[in-house]
Amino acid sequence: xxxxxxxxEFVARLAAVLGDGGVSTAQSERELxxxxxxxxxxxxxxxxxxxxxxxxxxxxxxxxxxxxxxxxPWGVGTxxxxxxxxxxxxxxxxxxxxxxxxxxHAEDFQVTVQPGIGHKDLNQQLARTGLxxxxxxxxxxxxxxxxxxxxxxxxxxxxGASKDxxxxxxxxxxxxxxxxxxxxxxxxxxxxxxLHLFVGSEGTLGVITEATLKLVPVPTNMSAxxxxxxxxxxxxxxxxxxxxxxxxxxxxxxVDAAHCKMLREAxxxxxxxxxxxxxxxxxxxxxxxxAGLSAVREICxxxxxISFRSTTDPTERKKLWHARHHSYEIMVRSHxxxxxxxxxxxxxxxxxxxxxxxxxxxxxxxxxxxxxxxxAGDGNIHVEFPYADDFEYQRALAMNKLIVIRAxxxxxxxxxxxxVGIGKAAYMEFEHGAALDVMRTIKAVLDPNAIxxxxxxxxxxxxxxx
Length: 466
Ligand SMILES: Cc1cc2nc3c(=O)[nH]c(=O)nc-3n(C[C@H](O)[C@H](O)[C@H](O)COP(=O)(O)OP(=O)(O)OC[C@H]3O[C@@H](n4cnc5c(N)ncnc54)[C@H](O)[C@@H]3O)c2cc1C
Prior knowledge:
alpha+beta; 16 helices; 18% strand; globular
């Protein structure tokens, strides 16, 4: 890709738009924005900018487009696929200072926000309304980063992914136009669905500068269930049975025996070294919650559950989910001499046992240490590969490739929630076939100079360091 270098004149033009405090070429700032939470190699931008309003974002894009300089949007850098690493340098466009709630429309169950607000911060500020924004990817990801990656998480099984919880966005295009996509109406049938074209586009088609999100009432009754099984297969069959029972869990997670051990040792959570299913149920009435729990107990018993615990105690429930949310950090901390490569395949729920069975077979055949944790209720699994050197990394890549191919063959996808970023670009041709050419055409129309987050999604643009 042929881009122009960032010059002092270009930096001065940026400063004219953003003010001196909104532009930094300092090494420390460039290093802070050089890598996300993935295993991919860091790469520094030449300049980092901090807009505070939409028009500044649009102006930065117009200047960069005219000068043929790449621009990589940045939420808070919690991505797990190198999505926000500025691999071609240029401008790193941080949305961190655009972190305000613009308007709460409580009577419509909606909120309009700037993109840099963290979803946890948003929910804290919304607490007084009794409403919340349900997608929850664990980390305090920004709403813009969540929409750009179509992030999901533990509550997706009940409330949907980010794409299901957004109604309207304002987007800055590469040529400096600011457009509105979608509307605040929950029913929308007007023209092409541009809203969902930008959702999941990972900052390669435009920059989200504002979003109106759907909210739901905070449930009054909640319970958590922890059920341990003698085998991974029994745990997975239980997940499928719970999904098929009509019980509508709010979370349905598979945690392998190794993760249970790590969570027990690091967080003191009462777990045994067995494959375990974590569940959560929400209900308006206590009686329906109790009826649901006894139905779940019956399913688990039929599947040969070893231990079953349910609780409505908020402290215990929070402790359990806190540990689940921190399982990635806990795993990384427990292996100080290793790096981690994480996969993110997803399949239709009926194929989940076949997928997990295949992973178990490969693990055995390749004699490799891998861990597994996943949003099982959505048919999504993260197989995690620790590696110490290039040899182990190449082995992990080879096993991962087999898993991705099998998931796609089972009617699934290479990525359920982390996005394509750098690492999954290699599978886009296999997964999408001729549709990938249509994506290239759309990219060329909206970003003809390919300045927006180059090096992501499209295999021919990717630089493969790790
Ligand atoms: C411990 C841990 C647990 C996680 N668990 C989950 C999980 O359960 N489910 C899940 O889905 N993810 C999970 N993630 C991944 C991560 O939180 C999500 O990918 C999240 O969407 C990233 O948001 P961010 O604000 O950090 O964005 P970044 O990582 O900064 O950016 C992500 C992408 O969005 C683009 N982008 C950012 N802001 C904008 C904008 N305003 N307009 C256009 N493009 C933009 C970037 O260019 C990049 O392509 C986890 C991460 C960690 C570290």
